Structures are given as C-alpha cells and as structure tokens.
Input
Amino acid sequence: MAVIGSNLADALFPNNEPVGRAVMMDGAEFQVIGVFEKAKGGFFGENNQDNVFEIPLRTAQIRYPQLNDYFITAKALPGKRQEAFDETEAAMRRARHLAPGAEDDFNIQTPDQIIHQFDQITGVVGLVAIAMSGLGLLVGGIGVMNIMLVSVTERTREIGVRKAIGARRRDIIAQFLTEAVALTGAGGGMGILFAVLITLLLGKLVPSLPSVVPAWAVGTGFGVSVAIGVFFGVWPAVKAAQLDPVEALRYE
Output
C-alpha cells in the first residue's frame, strides 16, 4: 500500500484515477490507496509534500533495514499545541523505553520553535546588513564630501565672481548643499530602482517570498540618501561661503 503526492499522481496517472492502481517502486509493487491534496507552495514555489511516496513503517523497515532516522508529524487541535507537545513527548519516551529522568534521545520541533530559530538567524543577518549599510553610507558620504571639496577648489573664481556681484554666504551654502543633495539623491534613486528590480526578480524566481516593496522603505531609502548629502555637504558649502571674494578672483 502507498499514499502518493498530487504531483506524483499526475505524473504516473495523468488521465486515470490513481486510487486502486498498482505502481512499481524500487523493484516492488505497491497499490495506491490514497492521494494527498495539493499542498501550499513551499520556499521555492513547490511543496515537497506533492512529490512524496509514503508506505507503511513496517514495510519500510523490512525493505530498508539500514535506515534509522524517522520523522513523525503530529497535528494539534486549535489552542492545544502545548498539550499536544507534552503528549507527543510522553508517547515518544514510552516508545523508546526511556527511564524517568533520562535525557531525550529524540527531538521535537514545533512551528513556533522553527519560526523562533528563523527569526534569530534573520536578526543576526539584519544586524550584519545594518553594519555593512552604515559602513557603506560612511564611505559614500566621505566620497561625496571629497568630491564637493574638489568642486569648491576648482570653482574658486566662480565663487569669487558670485560674491562680487552680490551673492551672500547663505546663497553659496545653498548652492553647494543643493549640488550635494542632488548627487546623493540621484545615487539613492538609482539604488532604489535597482533594489526594486532585484525584489521583483526574486519574486518571480521564488513565488513564496513576498515581492512587494513597501512605500516606507522607498521613502526611507531616499530620505537617508538626501540626509547623507546634507550632512557631508555642509563642510564644503561652508568652506565655499567663507572664501574671500578678492582672493577668490585672484585664484588661478
């Protein structure tokens, strides 16, 4: 006897009812007594439950005596997960003849435990990503500041001319801050576009992953880019505003 997944049923019996029919598996003949319902999509879009070929435990022990790892799935009633966990643990200890006080020689995992472990992993990955992003922002900000300092040096005469015809310090500061913000804003916009494209591509390759980019993430990314331009553009802008117009006009 065997119970098979829906994908396996479609592949073996595309135009026939699989229940009651015989199928060869590893040199032995089994009769199909049931087919699992189509399962929800897994991590890579397909659930392995749709491809299983399940046979009785005793039959598997006879045909494959070298196997010594077993997995048992138990489903708890709504709101009874802890009671089901305790009951399953007690049943496993009895089945494995463990004395009271002896350590378990088996492992029981619940969805909550798996989610907790996954959250721990993603938390560490998130911290590493934040650290790397912070370092990247620092390096990028220093690069923008150096570019703006070079721009101030190269445009010294232009700054002198502007001051000579009436430009105030705040006008010069606003000019160079605007240029720094435009530079980092353009870079942030390109990064956001690239991230959105990568997210959509992953959504196509891995359908089970959410592929929607939240508006707050786009706004935060662009806002941080602009803030970096303002923060690292202040010094070059102030330096340009403090230039003496006479000395600036003499600059070669």
